Amino acid sequence: MNHQVGWRLRIEHVTRVRYAGPVRSSFNEARMTPLTLPSQTTLESQVTVGSGDIPVWSYDDYWGTHVSVFEVPQAHEDLLIRATSTVATGSCPRLPPARQRPDWAAIRDRAERGRLLEMTLPTALTALDPQVCRAVVAEVAGRGPDEAAAAIAALVRERITYRPGATGAQTSASQAWDNGQGVCQDLAQVTVGLLRAAGLPARYVSGYLHPRASPKPGRTVIGPGHAWAEYWAGSWTPLDPTTGSPVGERHVVVARGRDYGDVPPLKGTYDGPPPRHMDVTVELTRLA
Fold first, then answer.
1. Helices 145-159 and 184-198 meet at what angle, rounded to 10?
2. What's the pLDDT score for residue 92?
3. Residues 68-104 pLDDT 10s
4. Among candidate residues 186, 150, 190, 194, the one with its CA nearest the CA of residue 166
5. Arch. (CATH architecture) of 5-90+264-286
6. Which residues fall within 8 angstroms of residue 97, CB to CB, at 6 or more apart?
7. Is the pLDDT reported for residue 281 higher than 60?
8. I need a labelling partner for 199 at 20 to 30 A (CA). Which of 9, 144, 170, 258 fits?
9. Residue 267, CB half-sphere, CA atoms under 13 Å: how many?
């Protein structure tokens, strides 16, 4: 089902890495290019490195994410990556009636075959204590798949307080649950873990979120990277446990995977001292 196009967004994602000393060479992968999907269309996109004279190659990875690859073979003390894109986004369609969606047995049967199976298994970043899983599954027992998924997302939002800086990139769902606080990445990974425990294939989604529900065209705002979840119940259906709002015009999908480990915006290998500082800025402008 195609979404009705509602917004046109320009995104500028700038990352600057500063090292503790000269790095002799580095090889990097950037996942910063929005996907073209039924819910959104990437009208233009570009990833440049440094002053723009470093070649950038691209490929689509196993999970369907667009990856920009580049190598800096000469010595450097910092790294500047600029990803710009223009994306047309649409509103989220209403869920079909429950009778048109598969029941638990049909979902279980489908999930045991093919690639959906990969989205039913716990990972190091999404696994939760079995007692926690049992308690949450009991809480949503008796509900249909879509009702159960919505209840899980609401429960996670109630349990985990959104607090910037409370956790790091390697914080697991179990740690975030125990701490009771985290960022969107943590709420998304906890939600994915609990959806899987309940019997729903689920995946982690990373991208961008415009911080305002009704922004004026032409005004640029700072909007950090965002993460949410999708579960499969006849089709992939998004949930945003951090905001509790429908996934629609404000959301831009960049990558999907089992957890954050499949979709980091930047990763690489290098020969030299460790990074001293990473500065990331995301600017979003609603064009129309």
1. 140
2. 79
3. 999 999 999 999 999 999 999 998 778 888 889 999 9
4. 186
5. Sandwich (2.60)
6. none
7. yes
8. 170
9. 9
CA dist., res. 212 & res. 221, Å (int): 9
Q: What is the mean pLDDT of residues 140-156?
A: 97
Q: Show Cβ contacts of residue 273 under 8 Å, excluding neighbours closer than 6 positions.
A: 19, 20, 21, 22, 23
Q: In the chain, where are the structural domains located?
A: 5-90+264-286, 98-262
Which residues pair with residue 279 across a beta bridge?
16
Spatial CB neighbours of 84, under 8 Å, sequence gap ≥ 6: 10, 11, 12, 13, 45, 46
Q: How far apart, in whole angstroms, are the C-alpha atoms of residue 177 and residue 172?
A: 9
Q: What percent of the chain has pLDDT over 90?
A: 90
Q: Which two tokens stand for residue 34?
A: 């929005």
State which amino acid sits at residue 89: T
Closest CA to 192 of 227, 229, 161, 162: 229
How far is C-alpha 141 from the chain's CA centre? 28
pLDDT in tens, 150-173: 999 999 999 999 999 899 889 999
| Fold for the domain defined by 98-262 | C8orf32 fold (3.10.620)
**Can you tell me the distance from the alpha carbon of 286 to that of 195, in angstroms, rounded to the nearest whole number?**
33
What is the pTM (predicted TM-score) of this model?
Answer: 0.95
In sequence order, which residues have a C-beta less than 8 Å from that of residue 255 and are 6 or more positions away? 31, 35, 63, 65, 205, 206, 207, 262, 263
